[in-house]
Amino acid sequence: MEMKEAMLYKKLKGNKVQCELCAHQCLISPGNKGICAVRENKGGVLYTKAYNKVIATNTDPIEKKPLFHFYPGTQAYSIATAGCNFRCKFCQNWRISQLSKHWEGEFPGKNLPPELIVENAKGSGAVSIAYTYTEPTIFFEYAYDTAKLAQKEGLKNVFVTNGYQSPETIEKMTGLIDAANIDLKSFRDSYYQEVCGARLQPVLDSIQLMHKKDIWIELTTLVVPGQNDSEKELTEIAEFISSIGENIPWHISRFHPAAKMGNSQPTPIETLERAAEIGKEAGLNFVYLGNIPNHNLENTYCPNCGKLVISRRGYSAQNYLKDNKCPNCTTKLPGIFM
User: What one-character-per-residue DSSP string does 129-189 give?
Assistant: First the structure.
């Protein structure tokens, strides 16, 4: 299939181009690709290789993203292409996220145009389309065209992302992407460089900008033993989130060994429970623990009176809100609900 010209890039002298999609801002010579290995310079024109090339599809509970304050209890039709602009050592989806960097020949994936994605999503009974599993920013043209069609058909659009977009990309997302779960992997730049192949500040900037643009955001931190689990760092993360908005949900996720960190140990539950306490101490109203089945901190409680308003077991949710308000004290719950 013929490749599609990329969005968000600048043509330079000598047929070089500068990709402006993410914070890497790759300078790409003719015949070369960016860090994501998805965008390629051909004769001074930047093309995306991922357009129409789905590597994974599934209908998931929205809680799996995880999004707990965005249409809880509904389904999201989820899609991904191969590729990522990070190289996280613990990546759970490394087989597809890193595939583009080693693939020779035609780009992997099955042909699925935006029209069919929207048709499939509607047929599945999903309320939203989630661009997920790998990094949706690297298949932005595909996600953008799909999201526009989805919006016309009454579907919502969700990014599950590492937050490494450029401000220009977030501007394009505004009004089209309804919600995002953003990974805040650490509060140390050295961690981002060594573990992810990226930098911290662009992620912090993206979080602030998406919130300012009224995209509903929830944040996830995967707590890795001996890496980003100190009380100091967890406090810095919690205080940063609280400084933007005390109602931003923070998902603290348990690490399980994967990829290049397969010999590590899972995160002690006590560490995660202490992280949740730190989040509350920082003023956050909604702190959740992930990858710990049936823990009470999967549930949502009214920040005013403490009543259980959304109960969760696994990825299923039971919503007790009345007109999006606590049935006990009528406090309105922050988020986007049916």
Answer: EEE-SS-GGGGHHHHHHHHHHHHHTT-EEEEEE-S-B-HHHHHHHTTT--EEEEE---S-H
Q: Which bin fits 99, alpha (ψ -120 to 50), beta or left (φ > 0)?
A: alpha
Element (H, E) at 231: helix 231-244
pLDDT in tens, 143-189: 999 999 999 999 999 999 999 999 999 999 999 999 999 999 999 99
What amino acid is encoded at 43 in this protein? G
Q: 183: alpha, beta or left, given left = phi > 0 and alpha = psi -120 to 50?
A: beta
The per-residue pLDDT for 90 is 86
Q: Which residue type, as a one-letter code, is found at position 173?
A: M
Closest alpha carbon to 50 in 170, 151, 133: 133
Could you give the CA distance from residue 39 to residue 7 in angstroms, rounded to a whole number?
A: 10
Measured from the Cβ of residue 49, the count of other Cβ atoms closer than 10 Å reads 26
Report CA-CA distances (Å) from 333 to 4, 112, 212, 313, 318: 42, 37, 19, 20, 15
Q: Specify the 3-state DSSP secondary structure of 325.
A: strand
Nearest to 248 by CA among 305, 280, 221, 287: 287
Paired tokens of 297: 């901190």
- Three state DSSP letters for 2-25: CCEECCCEEECHHHCEEECCECCC
DSSP string, 215-228: -EEEEEEEE-TTTS
Transcribe 89-138 into DSSP letters: TT-TTHHHHSGGGT--SSPSSEE--HHHHHHHHHHHT-SEEEE-SS-GGG
For residue 66, is the peptide bond before it cis, meaning its omega torsion is within 30 degrees of 0? yes
Residue 263's pLDDT band (boundaries 50, 70, 90)?
Answer: low
